[in-house]
C-alpha cells in the first residue's frame, strides 16, 4: 500500500510549483534550500475571514500573527489590505511599522521589554497586556515620557466553565480570570494613561469547548468591567484557527491506522526506527496519544471562526456571534497559520539517493529539518517531486528524507515518505503550503550550512515575476495615473 | 417480582424475535437481546455493577470517589450506583458529545472533567498526553479513587460471561445461536458473550462492529480506537465490519418504528450491521439458523444526535407570524428611522422602545426607557398575535438594525401601523454619540 499524505495545494501556489522551469531556475540561481512566498494570496485569505465578519455583522480587526513568518513581502502585502498585525517583540513591531502598518492597526502582544512598551506607546499601537504589572509599568512609561493615552487590552486566562469542568492546559500568560479585582484597580488608577479597549484570550488548542469557555469568561469579564465604571468595547479571541494540510482525509485516516498497526507490530514500520509519534505498545494495547498536528481538518481557518460564532453559549443560550453583536463589541482575531494558507513553499535539491543496507532508501537533501520545521510542528505531509528534465515513469517509492547536517537525528521527517517515483539527484522536492510556522521558524546555522533565501513570486498576467523578499513592495509595475 | 435492591434488577433481560417481515431474512431467526430493559437503561449496568460491587464496602468511610473514563452509559450507571452508596462520582472524558447524557450525568450529581483538546502549536517533546497523566493519577494506590477502569477490567467481561451469554443460551432452549453480532465499545459485552457462547458451541460465528473512522456512533469505537482498548482481542471476532452513523440511524428507525423497540444508535448500528452481514449468508442456506444482536440502550438520550444528522425527521409545523416567512421585499419595505429622527420621535411621541438583544448586553448599556425582550422571545410572543395596541408606536432596536427591520416588517404585516426599526441599530446610536445608560 502506498501511504501518500498528499498536500492540499491550490491557486497560484499550485501553478508556480507545476511550472516545469521556474522552481529549477530559482533554486539554481539562489541555492538550496530556498523559500518561496506568494504575497498575492494573503489578500484572499484576509477576505475569507472578513466574509465571516460580514455574515455576523461584526466589526473589529483581523490581526496577522507576525510570528508565523518573518517574510517582509508577506507583511507588506498584508499592510496593503485592511488587516492588522499582531507583533510579539520589539523587532516585529519595528518590522510592522516599516512595512506600512499604521499604529492603529498594530496589536503588541507577547513578553514585553520596556523598550518594546515605549515604542508601542509612542507610536500608538494597542498594547495587549499579559499582567497587571505590565499595565502598571506601561502607565509609568506613559506618564514619565508624557506620551498620549495608550489603548490597552488585558489578556485573561484560567477560565472556569459551567456544567462540566472543561480542563485546559495551563498558560503562562494572562491575568487569572478569578482575580480580576486587581486588574480593574490598575485600569481605574491609570485612567489618564490607559484607554481600556477590552479583554483577550489566546488558547493553544484546537478544542472548541475550551475556546467557548474562554469566550464566555471574556463576556463575563466585560460585564464586570462595566460595573467598575470602565467601558470596554472589544473582545480579542486570539488565533488557533488552523489549516487543513492534506487534500484527502482518507489518506490521513489510512496513514494513522497503519501507524497504529505498525506500533502494534502488525505491519513493518512506516517511520524511522519505528517512531510512534506519541503512541506506544503496552502488552498489545496502544497507549499514549498521537502527538502530531491534525493534518486533515474538516473545519479550519475562517470556517473554524464561523463555527465558534455559531456555537451557543451554555450560560446565555445564545450563539456567541449574536452575544458579541448584542454587546456592541468589536471582535479581534489573530490568525497566523490560517492567513498564510497557500502562501509559500520550501524548495530543496536532492543531493543523493542510496540504499541504507537495511532495505530502506535514503534521499539526502540540500537542506535540513530547521529549514522546513515539519517535524518540530508535527505536520505530516508529502513534498511534491519536481523532476529535472523529463520525469521517469511513475513507480511509487517509499523513502526516508535526510538532511544536510552531520547529525544522526537530522531527518526532514521521521515518517517514511512515499513519492510517485524515485527521485534523482538534481530533482527538487517542494514542501508546499509551509509559509505558516514551517518555513524558517527553527532555522539555525550551528553547522554553517547555507540558510535559505526567500523569494517573492508574483503573478504578472500569464507570467511570473520574482524578486528577493526584501525587494518586494505592493506597487507592481507602473500604475496608470491618469 | 419483588426486589430488595434496584441493583438486583440488573440482567435477566428478554430475548425478542424480530419479525421476518421487517428484516427480510428467509432462513435466519434474528433475536434482539433487550439490554435497554436494565434499570439504569443500558447494557453497561451489568459491567458497572460487576466492577464496583465488591469494592463498595467501606469505600464511603475511606472517602473514595468512583472514577471512570466514560462519556456515556457506564458513567450513567456508575453515577447512580455511587449515589446509592454515598460516594461521589467523577467522569473523565475527552469530550461529552451527547448533550442529553451530559445533562443527565449532572442531574445525577456527577462531576464531569473534559480533558483539554489537542494543542494547536504542537510541542512534540511533550510525549505524555493528558489522558495518560489522568490515568496515572486515578490509578495510584491510596489516591482516594475507586477507578473502575472499564477498558482494562476483566470484571467487565465477566459480567457478560456469567450473565448475558448464559441468558441467551437458556432463552434459546439450551442452544447457542449460530451468529452473534455485537458493537465493540469497551469490548466487554462482545468478548464476554462470545466466550460464553463458544464454550457451549465452538462453531458460533462472532461478528464485531466498529465505527467508520471519521464517523461517530455513540458507544462504538472506531477501527483505530479499538486498539486502545485493553479488553479488545481481535481473535474473539471471526470478522470485524464497519458501520456508519447513517447505518446506525437507519437501524434505529427500523427498530423504533417497526419493532416496538426504542433502541438508541448503538442498537440501531448492531441491527443494521447484523442484517447486512446475515443477508449475504441467507441466500445460500438450506436449513434454519439463529442470530442474536444486542440492543444496548434507549433512544431518548440521542434526540439531538439524531436532529443534527437527520433534521428532516423532526419536521415542524409551519407557524403563523414568523420572520422566516417574510420575503426580501417585505423586509426592504419595513419602516426604518435614523438615529437623529428617532431621537426627535422619541421625545415627541414616546414610542415603546423594544431592545431585542440579550439581557446580558441590555444590562450593560441600552437606550434610556427601553424594555428588553430578546428576539427569540419576541418571536414567540408574535406567534400568538400583536402583543401591544395598534395605537402605541413601537421602535425596535437590535445591534445593527437587521433583525429589528425584520420584526418591524412582521409587525406591519400583522397590522401594526407604526412599528419602526432603528436604522444601524444600537451601534449607530452609540457611534452618533447618543446616550446609552445602565440602570
Automatic annotation (TrEMBL), chain A:
Q: What SUPFAM superfamilies would the database entry show? A: Alanine racemase C-terminal domain-like, PLP-binding barrel
- Membrane-crossing ranges are none
Is Repeat included in the keywords of this UniProt record? no
Q: Which Pfam families match?
A: Orn_Arg_deC_N (PF02784)
Pinpoint the Orn/DAP/Arg decarboxylase 2 N-terminal domain residues.
Answer: 55-251
Q: Which domain of life is it from?
A: Bacteria
Instruction: Cite the InterPro entries for this sequence.
Output: Ala_racemase/Decarboxylase_C, De-COase2_N, Orn/DAP/Arg_de-COase, PLP-binding_barrel
**Biological processes, Gene Ontology terms:** lysine biosynthetic process via diaminopimelate
Cofactor(s), names only, from the UniProt record: pyridoxal 5'-phosphate
What Gene3D superfamilies has UniProt attached to this entry? Alanine racemase (3.20.20.10), Lyase, Ornithine Decarboxylase, Chain A, domain 1 (2.40.37.10)
UniProtKB keywords: Pyridoxal phosphate
List the molecular function annotations (GO) for this entry: diaminopimelate decarboxylase activity
What protein name is recorded for this chain? Diaminopimelate decarboxylase
Q: Which organism is it from?
A: Actinoplanes utahensis
From TrEMBL, chain B:
Q: Which InterPro entries match?
A: Cys_Synth/Cystath_Beta-Synth, Rhodanese-like_dom, Rhodanese-like_dom_sf, TrpB-like_PALP, TrpB-like_PALP_sf
Cofactor requirement: pyridoxal 5'-phosphate
Every Rhodanese domain range: 347-438
**Coiled-coil residues:** none
One GO process term, biological-process aspect: alpha-amino acid metabolic process
Q: Which PROSITE patterns match?
A: RHODANESE_3
The record, for SUPFAM superfamilies, names: Rhodanese/Cell cycle control phosphatase, Tryptophan synthase beta subunit-like PLP-dependent enzymes
Q: Which Pfam families match?
A: PALP, Rhodanese
Sorted alphabetically, which keywords does the UniProt record give?
Answer: Pyridoxal phosphate
Renumbered to this chain, the signal peptide range is: none
**Keyword Transferase recorded:** no
What is the protein name stated in its UniProt record? Pyridoxal-5'-phosphate-dependent protein subunit beta
Amino acid at each position: 500500500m502506498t501511504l501518500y499524505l498528499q498536500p492540499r495545494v491550490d491557486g497560484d501556489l499550485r501553478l508556480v510549483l507545476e511550472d516545469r522551469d521556474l522552481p529549477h531556475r530559482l533554486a539554481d540561481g539562489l541555492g538550496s534550500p530556498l523559500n518561496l512566498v506568494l504575497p498575492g494570496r494573503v489578500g484572499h485569505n484576509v477576505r475569507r475571514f472578513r466574509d465571516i465578519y460580514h455574515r455576523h455583522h461584526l466589526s473589529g480587526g483581523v490581526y496577522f500573527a507576525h510570528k508565523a513568518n518573518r517574510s517582509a513581502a508577506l507583511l507588506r502585502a498584508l499592510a496593503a489590505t485592511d488587516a492588522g498585525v499582531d507583533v510579539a517583540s520589539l523587532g516585529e513591531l519595528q518590522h510592522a511599522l516599516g512595512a506600512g502598518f499604521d499604529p492603529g492597526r498594530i496589536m503588541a502582544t507577547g513578553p514585553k521589554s520596556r523598550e518594546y512598551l515605549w515604542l508601542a506607546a509612542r507610536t500608538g499601537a494597542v498594547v495587549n497586556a499579559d499582567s497587571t504589572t505590565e499595565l502598571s509599568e506601561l502607565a509609568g512609561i506613559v506618564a514619565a515620557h508624557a506620551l498620549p493615552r495608550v489603548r490597552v487590552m488585558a489578556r485573561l486566562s484560567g477560565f472556569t466553565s459551567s456544567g462540566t469542568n472543561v480542563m485546559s492546559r495551563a498558560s503562562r500568560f494572562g491575568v487569572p480570570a478569578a482575580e480580576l479585582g486587581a486588574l480593574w484597580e490598575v485600569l481605574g488608577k491609570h485612567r489618564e494613561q490607559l484607554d481600556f479597549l477590552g479583554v483577550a484570550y489566546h488558547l493553544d488548542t484546537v478544542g472548541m469547548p475550551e475556546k467557548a469557555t474562554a469566550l464566555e469568561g471574556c463576556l463575563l469579564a466585560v460585564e464586570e468591567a462595566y460595573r467598575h465604571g470602565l467601558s470596554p468595547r472589544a473582545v480579542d479571541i486570539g488565533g488557533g484557527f488552523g489549516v487543513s494540510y492534506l487534500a484527502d482525509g482518507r489518506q490521513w485516516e489510512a496513514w494513522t491506522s497503519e501507524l497504529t498497526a505498525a506500533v502494534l507490530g502488525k505491519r513493518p514500520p512506516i517511520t524511522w526506527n519505528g517512531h510512534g509519534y506519541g503512541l506506544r505498545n503496552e502488552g498489545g494495547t496502544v497507549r499514549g496519544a498521537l502527538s502530531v498536528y491534525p493534518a486533515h481538518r474538516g473545519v479550519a481557518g475562517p470556517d473554524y471562526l464561523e463555527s465558534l460564532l455559531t456555537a451557543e453559549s451554555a450560560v446565555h443560550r445564545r450563539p456567541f456571534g449574536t452575544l458579541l453583536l448584542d454587546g456592541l463589541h468589536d471582535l479581534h482575531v489573530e490568525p497566523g497559520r490560517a492567513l498564510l494558507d497557500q502562501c509559500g513553499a520550501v524548495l530543496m535539491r536532492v543531493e543523493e539517493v542510496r540504499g541504507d543496507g537495511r532495505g530502506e532508501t535514503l534521499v539526502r537533501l540540500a537542506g535540513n529539518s530547521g529549514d522546513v520545521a515539519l517535524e518540530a510542528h508535527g505536520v505530516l505531509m508529502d513534498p511534491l517531486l519536481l523532476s529535472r528534465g523529463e520525469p521517469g515513469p511513475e513507480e511509487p517509492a517509499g523513502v526516508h528524507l535526510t538532511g544536510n547536517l552531520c547529525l544522526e537525528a537530522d531527518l526532514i521527517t521521521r515518517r517514511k515518505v512515499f513519492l510517485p517515483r524515485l527521485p534523482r539527484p538534481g530533482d527538487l522536492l517542494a514542501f508546499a503550503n509551509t509559509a505558516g510556522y514551517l518555513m524558517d521558524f527553527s532555522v539555525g546555522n550551528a553547522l554553517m550550512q547555507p540558510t535559505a533565501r526567500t523569494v517573492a513570486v508574483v503573478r504578472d498576467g500569464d507570467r511570473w515575476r520574482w524578486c528577493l523578499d526584501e525587494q518586494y513592495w505592493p506597487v507592481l509595475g507602473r500604475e496608470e495615473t491618469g | 417480582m419483588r426486589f430488595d435492591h434496584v441493583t438486583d434488577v440488573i440482567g435477566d433481560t428478554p430475548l425478542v424475535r424480530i419479525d421476518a417481515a421487517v428484516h427480510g431474512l428467509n432462513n435466519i431467526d434474528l433475536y434482539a437481546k433487550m439490554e435497554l430493559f436494565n434499570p439504569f437503561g443500558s447494557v453497561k449496568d451489568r459491567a458497572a455493577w460487576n466492577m464496583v460491587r465488591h469494592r463498595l464496602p467501606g469505600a464511603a468511610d475511606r472517602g473514595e470517589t468512583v472514577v471512570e473514563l466514560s462519556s456515556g452509559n457506564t458513567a450513567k450507571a456508575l453515577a447512580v450506583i455511587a449515589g446509592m452508596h454515598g460516594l461521589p462520582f467523577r467522569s473523565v472524558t475527552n469530550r461529552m458529545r451527547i448533550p442529553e447524557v451530559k445533562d443527565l450525568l449532572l442531574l445525577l450529581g456527577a462531576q464531569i472533567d473534559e480533558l483539554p483538546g489537542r494543542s494547536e502549536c504542537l510541542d512534540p517533546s511533550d510525549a505524555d498526553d493528558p489522558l495518560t497523566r489522568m490515568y496515572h493519577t486515578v490509578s495510584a494506590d491510596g489516591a482516594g479513587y475507586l477507578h473502575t477502569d472499564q477498558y482494562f477490567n476483566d470484571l467487565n467481561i465477566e459480567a457478560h460471561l456469567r450473565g448475558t451469554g448464559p441468558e441467551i443460551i437458556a432463552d434459546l432452549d439450551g442452544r447457542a445461536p449460530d451468529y452473534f453480532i455485537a458493537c465493540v465499545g469497551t469490548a466487554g459485552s462482545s468478548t464476554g458473550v462470545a466466550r460464553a457462547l463458544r464454550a457451549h458451541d465452538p462453531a458460533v460465528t462472532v461478528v464485531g462492529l466498529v465505527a467508520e473512522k471519521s464517523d461517530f456512533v455513540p458507544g462504538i469505537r472506531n477501527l483505530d480506537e479499538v486498539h486502545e482498548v485493553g479488553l479488545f482481542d481481535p481473535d474473539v471476532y471471526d470478522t470485524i465490519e464497519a458501520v456508519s452513523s447513517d447505518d446506525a440511524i437507519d437501524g434505529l428507525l427500523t427498530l423504533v418504528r417497526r419493532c416496538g423497540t426504542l433502541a438508541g444508535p448503538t442498537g440501531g448500528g448492531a441491527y443494521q450491521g447484523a442484517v447486512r452481514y446475515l443477508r449475504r449468508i441467507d441466500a445460500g442456506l438450506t436449513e434454519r439458523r439463529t442470530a442474536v444482536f444486542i440492543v444496548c440502550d434507549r433512544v431518548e438520550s440521542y434526540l439531538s444526535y439524531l436532529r443534527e444528522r437527520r433534521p428532516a425527521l423532526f419536521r415542524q409545523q409551519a407557524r403563523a407570524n414568523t420572520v422566516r416567512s417574510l420575503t426580501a421585499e417585505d423586509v426592504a419595505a419595513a419602516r426604518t428611522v435614523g438615529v437623529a429622527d428617532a431621537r426627535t420621535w422619541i421625545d415627541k411621541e414616546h414610542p415603546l422602545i423594544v431592545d431585542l438583544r440579550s439581557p446580558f448586553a441590555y444590562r450593560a448599556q441600552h437606550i434610556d426607557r427601553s424594555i428588553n425582550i430578546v428576539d427569540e422571545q419576541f418571536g414567540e410572543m408574535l406567534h400568538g398575535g400583536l402583543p401591544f395596541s395598534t395605537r402605541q408606536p413601537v421602535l425596535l432596536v437590535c445591534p445593527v438594525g437587521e433583525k429589528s427591520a425584520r420584526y418591524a416588517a412582521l409587525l406591519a404585516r400583522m397590522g401594526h401601523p407604526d412599528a419602526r426599526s432603528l436604522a444601524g441599530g444600537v451601534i449607530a446610536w452609540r457611534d452618533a454619540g447618543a446616550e446609552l445608560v445602565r440602570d
